[in-house]
Amino acid sequence: MKILGIPRFSVLGWSAGGSASLVLAAKHPDAVRKLVVWGANAYILPTEIAAYRKIADVNTWAKHLRVPMVEVYGKERFAQYWARWVDCMSVALEAKMDICSEHLKNIKCPTLVLHGCKDPLVDPVHAPYLIENIKKSVLYIYTDGKHDIHIR
């Protein structure tokens, strides 16, 4: 953003991008003006790994979820990337690695946390955890929302 000449900006982050956005806001509090995250988790739970493994075969995904990813990455590469991601998250859980919970206290910008109650990938404990650990944060819950609340 510095190269683009944009010193302050707002960030939207979904899923792993939501977790990455939380780290970005914590590490660059003078640059991130506002933050919106959804489908983001601060740490990894065994139930989440089980959910990832259930959808490890991208060929079983709903067309509206699979096709956009295939268009960006290609069919084979997307399948490889997703499989690696599931494996890496499994290793991270076994190693008791943190995703971003240690960074949350450093987030200074107003933060909107969105959560779909029917999200099969992110445990519902993450949304209140984020709110409790980010000073200027609010939570909005989509009672019928899933992981991809921005698509529906």
UniProtKB/TrEMBL annotation:
This is Bphl protein. The lineage of its organism: Eukaryota, Metazoa, Ecdysozoa, Arthropoda, Hexapoda. InterPro entries: AB_hydrolase_fold (IPR029058). GO terms for molecular function: serine hydrolase activity.
